[in-house]
Amino acid sequence: SQIFLKDIQGLEIVRCVSDQSEDLQNKLDQKGRLTKYLKENEFDWKDANVYICGRNEMIKDVTDILKSKNISNIYKENYG
């Protein structure tokens, strides 16, 4: 829909999953853990809104990494 297009200009989605079937991993952006991907790459996300969803431990680890890279607009949804 065009109605929200201006709101999502520059939207970047990184789909990453570990411990899944090879078929599923071949459809994703990254193989392995998101924490590894974030540690190994630099991003121009200083003013970005970052949304994280997953298990509590992963949320904490990803939040710590993002904060260490001076990314502060972090929104979280824990799945237990």
TrEMBL record:
Describe the location of the Oxidoreductase FAD/NAD(P)-binding domain by residue ranges: 14-63
User: Mind telling me which SUPFAM superfamilies this protein's record contains?
Assistant: Ferredoxin reductase-like, C-terminal NADP-linked domain
One GO term in the molecular function aspect is:
oxidoreductase activity
Q: Please provide an example of a Pfam family that matches this protein in its UniProt record.
A: NAD_binding_1
Q: Which InterPro entries match?
A: FNR_nucleotide-bd, OxRdtase_FAD/NAD-bd
- Its protein name is Oxidoreductase FAD/NAD(P)-binding domain-containing protein
Instruction: Tell me the organism.
Output: Candidatus Dojkabacteria bacterium
